Amino acid sequence: MILLILLAGAFAGIQNALAGGGSFITLPALIIAGLSPLQANITSTVALFPGQVVTGLANRSLVSGTPQLSFPTLFTLSLIGGALGGLLLLFTPESVFARLVPWLVLFATGVFAWGSFFRKPGAPGDHLGAVSTGIAQLGIAIYGGYFGGGIGFLMLAALSLAGMQTRGGAATKNVLAAVMNASAVLIFAFSGAVNWYEAVVLGAGAIAGGLIGAKMLSVFPENVLRVIVVLIGVALTVGLFLRPVS
């Protein structure tokens, strides 16, 4: 069982570095290990956080803001939204958000694919403005602190529409994911709902996977990264729609 959790963490770390959706690997693994869905969600968020930090640091040279919104602004919005989402999770059920996840991932994958392969650059209104980008990032951060599933795809889609290239967008969303989860992790750490033994094992795997994913992100060609992101998004969308939701 420990090996299952360790491997789930490693695969989640790689997937989070490249596109996102790693929690869809860790949540089932933790539930199989005996945790309740709520405990699994909270423990997964805490455990994946170190891997997100390591991945963000490994690709920090690729991190930037959008053409309309600075990185410090995106950073602040992610921090505030993550804290709000974490507080919401402790006091409200997550079932509604769980039912929305497949549709959110489908939407984000479609938007990213359209922005990467079909959108004609340079057209009027081609990119999201500062206000739209800020609202999108705050909303994603609240959702990320609350449930977290699919935030990588949502951010990649939003950052792509805001004018960022895939490699820089992936590196930036890794840092922002760590930022928004930092608020939630701080809240969860003192909630009594974290299963620390599983969190440590899962976190060790996520750190290793994050380093591997960061290396892949820095060397893979831009078009290859786009194809990988879309393929992961399609696979996750199909799996999420086929998965029963309680």
β-strand amount? under 5%
Task: Give the low-pLDDT segments.
Answer: 121-125
Broad shape: globular
Helix-strand pattern: HHHHHHHHHH
Tell me how many strands there are: 0
Helical amount among residues, as a percent range?
Answer: over 70%
**Count of discrete domains:** 1
Taking the alpha carbons of the first and last residues, their distance comes to 24 Å
Number of helices, where a helix is a run of at least 4 consecutive DSSP H or I residues: 10
Broad structural category = mainly alpha
What is the residue-averaged pLDDT? 83
Global Rg: 16 Å
Q: Biggest β-sheet: count, sense, barrel?
A: none
Index terms:
10 helices; 78% helix; mainly alpha; single chain; globular; 246 residues
Would you give an account of this structure?
The protein has 246 residues and is mainly α. It has one domain. It has helices spanning 2-18, 23-32, 37-58, 71-91, 95-118, 130-146, 151-161, 166-189, 196-219, 222-242. Helix 3 packs across helix 8, helix 5 (95-118) runs parallel beside helix 7 (151-161) and helix 6 runs antiparallel to helix 7.
